[in-house]
Specification:
Elements: H1 3-20, E1 24-30, H2 32-35, E2 44-51, H3 57-67, E3 78-85, H4 86-90, E4 100-103, E5 110-113, H5 123-133, E6 135-136, H6 143-146, H7 152-169, H8 172-188, H9 194-202, H10 209-220, H11 230-248
Parallel strand pairs: 2-3
Antiparallel strand pairs: 1-2, 1-6, 3-4, 4-5
Length: 249
């Protein structure tokens, strides 16, 4: 992560400390900033905030205001932040409840009140990454003390539908590289960046697929590359889904 994004993350932690005070357990950086492959031109800054008890409506409103792009402009693609309570991080479920969700990316800025929401399955992977590699920003408890181990079945239960969604809706490079990192988790139990997943997969593929993965890697890095054929992307993702199913069995 570049120094400007690093300072911004510190400002985010300070804002949450101002809102939550002594009830703040910690602010944790996750996603590409800790797994690798962060690029301020296209990457979000992913943050999980953990507090002792549920947020009040006033705290939710104050956090949303302090984190807005008007008050705290993000130097990357945008901020993606969720607030959860400590009991939730210590007992992961398939759809963890949350207190607040804030995103500031221009193409998807929103504030979601978790008290009016049924939970967020995306938090399963966020918890797992924080447990494995989360970076504490500012004072607080170490991530290993806050995030309990996430059951492999919970992680696979999130990875598989995400792959199916990406094959239909996400850019080709996202779908291909996300499939690669899911395959690596199924094979080795390790969560990695999209770039690391693609590089790992390059040495384990047949004659044609490495070209598709290499093009996806080049796109992800912002390098010149051939356009990805959507039919080839879909075929590749379903092939990886089959490998994942075999590995899980």
């Amino acid at each position: 992560m570049d120094s400007l994004s690093g300072r911004y993350t510190g400002d985010v932690a300070s804002a949450m400390a101002a809102v939550l005070g002594s009830r703040l357990v910690g602010v944790y950086l996750h996603g590409s900033a800790v797994l690798g492959g962060f690029d301020a031109r296209r990457s979000d800054i992913d943050v999980l905030v953990v507090c002792e008890h549920p947020m009040t409506a006033d705290e939710q409103a104050a956090a949303a205001e302090l984190l807005s792009d008007d008050r705290l402009p993000c130097p990357a693609h945008g901020l993606e932040l969720s607030v959860v309570t400590l009991p939730v991080t210590r007992r992961p479920t398939a759809q963890p409840p949350f207190e607040l969700h804030v995103t500031t990316a221009p193409d998807g800025a929103k504030v979601v009140d978790g008290h009016e929401h049924g939970g967020d399955p995306d938090l399963v992977l966020h918890f797992a990454v924080c447990r494995q590699a989360g970076l504490l920003v500012g004072p607080g408890r170490a991530s290993a003390e806050v995030f309990a181990p996430v059951d492999r079945d919970l992680i696979m239960g999130q990875l598989v539908p995400e792959l199916r969604w990406a094959a239909e809706h996400a850019p080709g490079e996202y779908a291909v590289l996300n499939a690669c990192r899911a395959w690596r988790f199924a094979a080795e139990g390790t969560l990695v960046s999209k770039i690391d997943g693609g590089q790992w997969a390059l040495h384990r593929l047949s004659t044609m697929d490495p070209e598709l993965v290499q093009s996806a890697l080049d796109h992800q890095r912002g390098l010149p590359a051939a356009e990805l054929d959507p039919r080839e992307v879909t075929r590749f993702v379903h092939r990886i889904l089959s490998r994942i199913t075999d590995a899980s069995a």
